Amino acid sequence: MSYSSLPEDVLEHVFSFVQSDKDRNVISLVCKSWYEIERWCRRRIFVGNCYAVSPRMAIRRFPEVRSVELKGKPHFADFNLVPEGWGGYVYPWIRAMAGGYPWLEELKLKRMVVTDESLELIAKSLKNFKVLVLSSCEGFSTHGLAAIAADCKNLKELDLWESDVEDPSGNWLSKFPDTCTSLVSLNIACLGSEVSFSALERLVVRCPNLRTLRLNRAVPLEKLAHLLRQAPQLVELGTGTYSADLRPDIFSNLAGAFSGCKELKSLSGFWDVVPAYLPAVYSVCSGLTTLNLSYATIQSPDLIKLVSQCPKLQCLWVLDYIEDSGLEALAATCKDLRELRVFPSEPFGDEPNVSLTEQGLVLVSEGCPKLESVLYFCRRMSNDALVTIAKNRPSMIRFRLCIIDPQTPDYLTLEPLDVGFGAIVQHCKDLRRLSLSGLLTDRVFEYIGTYAKKLEMLSVAFAGESDLGLHHVLSGCDSLRKLEIMDCPFGDKALLANAAKLETMRSLWMSSCSVSFEACKLLGQKMPRLNVEVIDESGPPDSRPELPVKKLYIYRTVTGRRIDMPGFVWNVGEDSALRLS
Amino acid sequence: MSPPLLLGVEEEGQSNVSLMASSPSDCISQNVSGLQERNYLGLSDCSSVDSSAASSLPVDNKNKLNLKATELRLGLPGSESPEREPDLSLLSSGKLDEKPLFPLLPSKDGICPGSQKNVVSGNKRGFSDTMDRFSEVKSSVYTEKNWMFSVGPDSESPQSVGQGKFPGNSGMNPMLRPTGAQQAIMKEMAPNALERSRPAANGTHNKASASNNNMSAPAAKAQVVGWPPIRSFRKNSLATTSKNNDEVDGKPGPGALFIKVSMDGAPYLRKVDLRTYTNYGELSSALEKMFSCFTIGQCGSHEAPGREMLSESKLKDLLHGSEYVLTYEDKDGDWMLVGDVPWEMFIDSCKRLKIMKGSDAIGLVELTRSVMKLSRMDKCSLADTKFGRNCNKKPNTIIMVYDHATAV
């Protein structure tokens, strides 16, 4: 009996065990009948660039999808490099899905513009809607949230991770009907203004399955204990502001409430933290696996005290107040640590304000055998340190280093950091994501092109000397999907020589580089399956063709140029494409 | 290309890597000829001879520029650095007599090879794209009197935004940053930076391969849009946190405070970081630049530096004709006229900005004036700026609460 004669429903059943998109895509390529069977039973699609495919096309191919994940703006939009109005509107997708996926349950959006209208359409049209995750999104207000709250009867998850929400006064939380008892996860940490505490409390009380609750800053510490006692089953908690007058009754109330939360594994929030109140969480520390202290402006001794009590910690996000000494303590205590992110407390200061150096990272790399994901802001680095880190942790998967001053050399030798990053890519063979900083020549790119065969995302700034650098990356990194470059002397040659490579990638961002307008036009004309978009707020880029293009965003697509480009974005693929603003 | 040899193990002549360190010119010609171009577009028919010939020039120019760039200059206010031409003049001036490597590309002078771009963008600042970044340059020492928008009697020139030379464009163009000017700022800041820290760094001026980093000590923290890569959410959160703590002790502003700015009639809004300004003059000047595009229409005009001044003053006049008024929405959701409260108070309460047509704002103006008169707040220099009040039309949308009309 050959595989091709298996009945369809058997195949479908087999396929249902295959969740990964990659594997599903491979299955669909085996033969026509497998393609057909697979597409009818795919339940989840991920579209990494919302402009790569049209909603209609997606719905047509996968008619029975229950979960959609979309990403909009390029990653550098996080750092204000993409002007407002660039795009990433979700409305066309929602409109299409309202008709095409009436049973849609989950929608996860990242860096997209979501309007109240979109949210209202979701609430009205999708009867089985359960999960809404809006990560770094914008364009909506609490009016839209009210619609979701009121009409999504089976809502399980509402997550507004770091979104920009307009907050007109309005008591949207109370729009959750009394019959809503299905909430499992609520993240409103990004909301700027107060929410009605009583509505919040009532909601928490009637949702026995609530596992994740991330409060916003406006929720006062005095009220936290009360909430915790209503929801001792919480697994993930984000506090509101973590400061209050120093009163023993508040403290003991809080400590008691925390001690009742036996399931707590993740803590976050801690805005405006008063160190005296930190010991209130000590009772849950032994079970914590995730700790986000990246808004907690407390000093190293307090941080050490806290972290030293969390032996099961797997993920720590913290400010550089932790300093090298704190990282040493971390390395000594948290042997299970997988992910470390150290954010700068004063990134725009002229001088270092804390004693956090490359040593801290080296210590963690030595002491934490499972460390695989690092985001580290610091002010100095050396090749030696990087080589040590690379040799210590060959299992590193994500390594993002941000030395705050652009083009900082190795502080010991004053050499570029090529060799250090070279060691990272050479030893960490499974590296998927890399962000470079410091003084770097073309050499580092040669290393990357040679060794970083599994690298999927590379972020580069103020690095390299010539087109050769870009050429190394484009020609050598076999798995590259996303490349984002700012302020590097990369120009036309490498781009044009590797034009076909761009079709194998999701996107390429280049800003403040040396790509000429002519090269962009050429690329756009020759590569119909790429959208070559030039972003220029000062006027049509062909009016000053001798100047390098300011911002360039190239992505592969099967739908051609997008129709929602604002006046400052030019698709330079077609001869008649240039519009005057 | 053979894989580079890592970590100190060297074999002569085998890898490009070891050669790279020797000298820039060797490096470039060697590497260019070793460039394996995937001839996808049938573009690269040029011989390596051409390549080497072409690329030797930029090296010379680069070195030339390097020397200039390493001159320590004081950069006193009012001083000009004419030789610090921005990128464009370099590109278009034909100093580079260079054939582009892709014959299909139009052979304009201005197509700069990567190595040329090197010098400018490598020095701490490449291009920058938005006003935010410019205004974040923290070197109030190096303000330029001949900068375009002098806003009012008590306003200094805005935080140093350069030397008044835009690459060929109308100076109104906020988007096109004069890299040269910015570079000049970098150089000018360098003396301080060098003195203050890392004296050993001077040695690297002569390191061969690190051609990017002519200024080895990083120039004093000129802020760049997009760098360091920190999300606005985090920046704003930290900013508010620092404000709440009482320990500011004279340190520079704790991060950013981004608010949206919209303008009547403009197709899209912008974001500005209020913390990068210290008074209303700076803010209004920055906004002028940012939105001047819309005021004067097409900003693509390609003007030689000499003619910049003309358009600057033209714009000044236009705006002094006070067609626009700057308003803001405060914490309570009320729209107020910008400029009537002390700056610190304004920053605290401002949630968004809007540049309104003067005719729409006349009532708002009178209202605010009345309110402020009653509360006896200090008037601000904005009163004297081009965001003035010479509109004589009746209000149509603003509700007048106070009955008396303030003479405008």
Please describe what this structure looks like.
The complex is a heterodimer of chains A (about 575) and B (about 400). Chain A has about 575 residues and is of the alpha/beta class. In chain A, helix 13 runs parallel beside helix 14. Mean pLDDT of chain A is about 95; it is low at about 575-580. Chain B has a 5-stranded mixed sheet, sandwiched between helices. Mean pLDDT of chain B is about 50; it is low at about 1-220, about 245-255, about 295-320 and about 375-408. By secondary structure, chain B is of the alpha+beta class. Chains A and B meet through helix 16, helix 17, helix 18, helix 19 and helix 20 of A and helix 1, helix 2, helix 4, helix 5 and helix 8 of B.
Keywords:
heterodimer; A: 581 residues; alpha/beta; 21-stranded mixed sheet; two-stranded parallel ribbon; 21 helices; 32% helix; globular; disordered C terminus; B: 408 residues; alpha+beta; 12 helices; disordered N terminus; Protein TRANSPORT INHIBITOR RESPONSE 1 (chain A); Auxin-responsive protein IAA9 (chain B)
Oligomer: heterodimer
Spatial sequence of strands, sheet with the most strands of chain B: 2-1-5-3-4
Helix segment tally of chain A: 21
Q: Count up the helices of chain B.
A: 12
Question: What is shown here, in short?
Answer:
The complex is a heterodimer of chains A (581) and B (408). With 581 residues, chain A is of the alpha/beta class.
List the helices and strands and how they pair.
The complex is a heterodimer of chains A (581) and B (408).
Chain A: H1 8-15, H2 21-28, H3 32-41, E1 44-47, H4 55-61, E2 67-71, H5 91-100, E3 106-110, H6 116-125, E4 131-135, E5 138-141, H7 142-151, E6 157-159, E7 164-166, E8 185-187, H8 197-206, E9 212-214, H9 221-230, E10 236-238, H10 248-259, E11 266-268, H11 282-285, E12 290-293, H12 300-307, E13 315-319, H13 323-333, E14 339-343, H14 358-367, E15 373-378, H15 383-392, E16 398-403, H16 418-427, E17 433-435, H17 442-451, E18 457-461, H18 467-476, E19 482-486, H19 492-497, H20 499-502, E20 507-511, H21 517-526, E21 530-535, E22 551-556, E23 569-571
Parallel strand pairs in A: 1-2, 2-3, 3-4, 4-6, 5-7, 6-8, 8-9, 9-10, 10-11, 11-12, 12-13, 13-14, 14-15, 15-16, 16-17, 17-18, 18-19, 19-20
Antiparallel strand pairs in A: 20-22, 21-22, 21-23
Helix pairs in contact in A: 1-3, 4-5, 5-6, 6-7, 9-10, 12-13, 13-14, 14-15, 15-16, 16-17, 17-18
Chain B: H1 16-20, H2 24-34, H3 48-70, H4 87-92, H5 114-122, H6 131-135, H7 179-196, H8 232-244, E1 258-263, E2 270-273, H9 280-295, H10 308-320, E3 324-329, E4 335-337, H11 343-349, E5 352-357, H12 358-375
Parallel strand pairs in B: 1-5
Antiparallel strand pairs in B: 1-2, 3-4, 3-5
Helix pairs in contact in B: 2-3, 3-5
